[in-house]
């Protein structure tokens, strides 16, 4: 049997990175490998979701008042389990838990990092076989090592992240993670049960043809956002439009596509939900870090997502993210530099249904 030594597994890759940095302790590599292990376990359950009694609602609501699915709980438990039993994480914050979970044992208290995650994003899509994902974010602690982690460790702005990533359970399962050194993607090779480097040094194209937004909310959006979206639908010499609309309703899949192919993803605030739907710490920050490290950009419509000082664990933020040139075009609309005349349509109010 010929062994393909060109294929590098996630473990080999993180160890290789470690060798390039002799001063590194290996804690971050361990943590990424722990997350990789949890992702493989979650992947197994996601793949057999239709076969066993793991679909459907758990019967409870999460802290955001959303129905909790059984697989959400499973994914959350897997991540908590590997990180608690590992040696690199002092505590976690999860979209599924009301409060932070500080591990508070001798080894964990010495760990440099804390981790925040959305164990299963897009979970309302599970029962219809749409791609879903796990999103994670890693911060270096600001509290004293040797003592339990504190809330301040978790409430840091996104620009303090040391790593962030996501796992997409799709037509194949991929783990993509970013550090300050760049973004790399690993595809799960089911035959050996390992994530293997398939997308080295990912760069987000400067521009693209996709725009992703929930059009159902259009009449609830700010006028400037409506004008930008209308511009996306227009033939336009400067942007090569009209763009193609693609919206899965599963952020990991939507942003993954736009990261690889170029595009812009938006979840703006609406009249009913001025801060939108997405959570700053579990969804916006990690993607903002990944896309920025790949050459793209993100904002809440006013400032860079990564510069927001979070006030609470579960806060939400309007979110715009994608290819650099498309984000710049959006900013021109949001700042009033550009506008679109929206002829023949009264956009200030939703048309009344008959
Ligand atoms: P969920 O985890 O409860 O499914 O919510 C998060 C998802 C994101 O993945 C996605 O971008 C967004 O909700 C879609 O929301 P909407 O259906 O309002 O467009």
Description:
The chain has 354 residues and is α+β, with helices and mostly antiparallel strands. It has 2 domains: 10-199, Fructose-1,6-Bisphosphatase, subunit A, domain 1 (Fructose-1,6-Bisphosphatase, Chain A, domain 1, 2-Layer Sandwich), CATH 3.30.540; 210-349, D-Maltodextrin-Binding Protein, domain 2, CATH 3.40.190.80. It has 9 helices and 15 strands. The strands form 3 sheets. The protein has an 8-stranded mixed beta sheet, with helices on both faces. It has a 5-stranded mixed beta sheet with strand order 12-11-13-15-14, sandwiched between helices. The protein binds 2,5-anhydro-1,6-di-O-phosphono-D-mannitol. 2,5-anhydro-1,6-di-O-phosphono-D-mannitol (AHM) binds next to loops.
Sheet/helix structural class: alpha+beta
Helix residue percentage? 25-40%
Small molecules held by this entry: 2,5-anhydro-1,6-di-O-phosphono-D-mannitol
- Taken from the alpha-carbon principal axes, the silhouette is globular
Low-pLDDT runs: none
How much of the polypeptide forms β-strand, as a percent range?
15-25%
CATH topology of the largest domain: Fructose-1,6-Bisphosphatase, Chain A, domain 1
Helix count equals 9
- CATH class of the largest domain equals Alpha Beta
**Largest sheet data:** 8 strands, mixed
Subunit arrangement of the protein: single chain
């Amino acid at each position: 049997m010929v062994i393909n030594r060109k294929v590098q597994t996630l473990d080999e890759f993180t160890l290789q990175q470690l060798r390039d940095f002799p001063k590194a302790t290996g804690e971050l590599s361990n943590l990424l490998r722990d997350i990789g292990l949890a992702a493989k376990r979650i992947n197994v359950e996601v793949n057999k979701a239709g076969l066993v009694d793991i679909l459907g609602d758990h019967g409870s609501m999460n802290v955001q008042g959303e129905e909790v699915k059984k697989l959400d709980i499973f994914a959350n438990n897997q991540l908590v389990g590997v990180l608690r039993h590992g040696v690199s994480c002092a505590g976690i914050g999860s979209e599924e838990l009301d409060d932070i979970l500080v591990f508070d044992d001798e080894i964990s208290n010495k760990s440099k990092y804390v981790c925040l995650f959305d164990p299963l994003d897009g979970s309302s899509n599970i029962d219809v076989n749409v791609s879903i994902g796990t999103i994670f974010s890693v911060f270096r602690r600001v509290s004293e090592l040797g003592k339990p982690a504190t809330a301040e460790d978790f409430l840091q702005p996104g620009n303090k992240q040391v790593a962030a990533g996501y796992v997409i359970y799709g037509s194949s399962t991929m783990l993509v993670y970013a550090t300050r050194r760049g973004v790399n993607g690993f595809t799960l090779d089911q035959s050996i049960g390992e994530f293997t480097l398939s997308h080295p040094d990912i760069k987000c194209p400067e521009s693209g043809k996709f725009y992703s937004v929930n059009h159902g909310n259009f009449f609830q959006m700010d006028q400037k956002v409506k004008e930008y979206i209308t511009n996306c639908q227009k033939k336009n010499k400067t942007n090569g439009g009209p763009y193609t609309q693609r919206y899965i309703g599963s952020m990991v899949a939507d942003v993954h596509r736009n990261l690889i192919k170029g595009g812009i993803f938006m979840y703006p605030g609406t009249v009913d939900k001025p801060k939108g739907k997405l959570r700053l710490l579990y969804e916006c920050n990690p993607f903002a870090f990944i896309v920025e490290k790949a050459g793209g950009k993100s904002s809440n419509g006013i400032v860079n997502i990564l510069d927001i000082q979070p006030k609470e664990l579960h806060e939400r933020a309007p979110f715009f993210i994608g290819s650099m040139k498309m984000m710049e075009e959006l900013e021109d609309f949001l700042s009033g530099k550009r506008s679109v005349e929206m002829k023949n349509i009264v956009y200030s109010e939703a048309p009344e249904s008959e």
